[in-house]
Here is the input.
Amino acid sequence: MNKTRKLKRPPERPAWDEYFMGIADLVSRRSSCLRRSVGAVLVRDKRILATGYNGVPSKIRHCSEIGCIREKLKVPSGERHELCRGLHAEQNAFLQAALHGTSVKDATIYSTIQPCIICAKMIINAGIKEVVIRGDYPDKMSKDLLREAGVRVRLAK
Here is the structure.
């Protein structure tokens, strides 16, 4: 009696952009921000270097506990970043890499949204070569600086 086993066809593998952006989406679910959940993944040679999500620093009470100062002051999105208790996802990804001694030079950063001007300046000085985003953000200066510095910005495929 010949028992041949029928092999299951593996599910279709996601493309690299889909894979890393999916991870950025998952990371964003850790956000403690009341206004927007953002995730970021630093990648080099198809390997994850660090991840980050937006939220308050360690040992600081979350905005869900004390409220959002930006909401109270009616600060529009994309303005007055200093009036926030939290860090952006990109900033936290850089800090995690630094904390663990991981260079991010020549890496790609996947972010669920376009970086703000502050994060754009960090991206430039960290030596990031490419920014892959899904969503836009109201910060023209960020786009201009990244373009001027030669950092490639593109929408995830």
User: Anything to note?
Assistant: The longest strand covers residues 47-53. DSSP finds six helices and five strands in the chain.
